[in-house]
């Protein structure tokens, strides 16, 4: 499992659904005392290329079901695994990201809707800003050339590239993702630092070295631009803000027993 995939999964998990569970750190301490360490036991799989993210979650779930059946939700396993993937700093991986405590107590959803997963909820109430900024989570991970095609070759009517790309970076991007080439090839989203959790992504964004268009666009909006710049001009801490944001995002749309349950396996309903 790629550790980056875990962080991606946490987003999807949180963006579907609209009710609220009572979350707290240490929710499983009494009911399944080893829940956190069992999820962490699967760290070795984070860096295992070729194994898909869902396998890691399913394996952790299977182990948890064998020791505490019907107790630990898949949504919480994803949240715990994402935390561990960000902070990993051992023989299995070196993200060196901030350690943070995850609140747990979410139930799993009873509805699976690909359209909802595709849509960012609550655009109007300020959460959109949170999603946009936390996309600096692209400090680790890769993107497929698929997501670069429009930016590199079809940005304007009649073709052409996104002029916000630094001219010195353009040849690098076009040689990795040539026109008509394999759209499944992948490149780091954080040029020069794709394996490490740090603020290089923000420096890259400021310098026209963003890989994804959605990251480059943070400089188009005065609010997001001001926040990006603040990490270099006022000493604001990206790590601290990331932790604050991901914890907040983890409270959005959680399920309780009125509209959720504990799945037996994470990939299907009970
Ligand atoms: C405006 C919101 C966002 C957009 C448009 C966006 C877009 C993307 C795209 C296009 C990719 C490449 C996917 C692929 O090639 O398979 C990606 C990957 C990724 N995103 Fe985002 N993202 C957003 C928000 C976030 C947030 C909020 C997080 C984490 C909290 C995040 C974490 C990641 C990670 C870790 C990957 C790498 C996955 C991998 O290496 O397999 N993204 N994102």
Automatic annotation (TrEMBL):
Signal peptide: 1-21
Cofactor stoichiometry and binding remark: Binds 1 heme b (iron(II)-protoporphyrin IX) group per subunit. Binds 2 calcium ions per subunit.
E.C. number: 1.11.1.7
Alphabetical list of Pfam families matching this protein: peroxidase (PF00141)
Keywords, comma-separated and alphabetical: Calcium, Disulfide bond, Heme, Hydrogen peroxide, Iron, Metal-binding, Oxidoreductase, Peroxidase, Secreted, Signal
Reported cofactor(s): heme b; Ca(2+)
InterPro entries per UniProt: Haem_peroxidase, Haem_peroxidase_sf, Peroxidase_pln
PANTHER family recorded: PEROXIDASE 16-RELATED, PTHR31517
Name of this protein: peroxidase
Disulfide feature: 74-266, 145-177
Example GO molecular function: heme binding
SUPFAM superfamilies per UniProt: Heme-dependent peroxidases
Plant heme peroxidase family profile domain location: 43-270
Reactions it catalyzes: 2 a phenolic donor + H2O2 = 2 a phenolic radical donor + 2 H2O
Residues that, per the record, bind substrate: 121
GO biological process, one term: response to oxidative stress
Residues engaged in binding heme b: 138
Residues that, per the record, bind Ca(2+): 139, 190, 198
Protein origin, superkingdom: Eukaryota
